[in-house]
Amino acid sequence: MNAVASIRARAGAIRERASAWWLSRTDQERKFLTVGGAVVLVSLVYALLLAPAIEGRDSLRRSLPALRQQAAQLQTLAAEAQTLAANPAPQVPPMSSEALNASMAQRGLKAGSVTMTGEYAKVQFNGVSFANLVAWLDAQRRENRVQVQDASFTALAAVGQVDASLTLRQASAQAQ
């Protein structure tokens, strides 16, 4: 209780000094100080409370159209994802030596040998264009889900020509 009493005594002393200081001012000085204090108080309230709120509201108002557009795009993408998820992935025909030979013929490739072993195909190329071979492999990957499990390339003296030995495997729909 002693600490509370000393704090009250100090507050009373400060109050008395402030009152004496205020009463020693003339009426005109008191008016100037009152108006100045009010201006400072209003300025602080505006600077600390109102201005940030107004600026935040304006920035939100400016960004609202872009946010609405993004929300519309997200809704469109979500609807598209739902329709794609509802449709099963198209089934690709199983990999066979006939299908591989036909697709190679379309690309102008001729395999030395095509050997099917279960779900794997071993394909040997002799003297083929590397660019055509890579284009064919890319088409097989996209169209038939055929993956290269093992590849061995040997460059030939002719520019862009290679001997290649490939092991291919068709990926299942679940692996995609």
By DSSP (H or I, 4+ residues per run), the number of helices equals 4
Could you tell me how far the N terminus lies from the C terminus, measured between alpha carbons in angstroms? 78 Å
Helix fraction?
Answer: 55-70%
Shape: rod-shaped
Order of helical and strand elements: HHHEEHEE
Number of strands: 4
Number of discrete domains: 2
Indicate the mean pLDDT.
91
- Radius of gyration, in Å, reads 42 Å
Largest sheet: 4 strands, antiparallel
Strand content: 15-25%
- The low-confidence runs, each spanning 5 or more residues with pLDDT under 50, are none
Q: Look at the helices and sheets and give the structural class.
A: alpha+beta
The largest beta-sheet arranges its strands as 1-2-4-3
Describe the model.
By secondary structure, the protein is α+β, with helices and mostly antiparallel strands. The protein has helices at residues 2-23, 27-86, 97-106, 130-144; strands spanning 111-117, 120-129, 146-155, 161-170. A four-stranded antiparallel sheet has the order 1-2-4-3, covered by helices on one side. Strand 1 (111-117) and strand 2 form a beta hairpin. It is rod-shaped and about 115 Å long.
Give a quick summary of the entry.
The chain is an alpha+beta fold and 176 residues long.
Characteristic key phrases:
176 residues, rod-shaped, Gyrase A, domain 2, four-stranded antiparallel beta sheet, 4 strands, alpha+beta
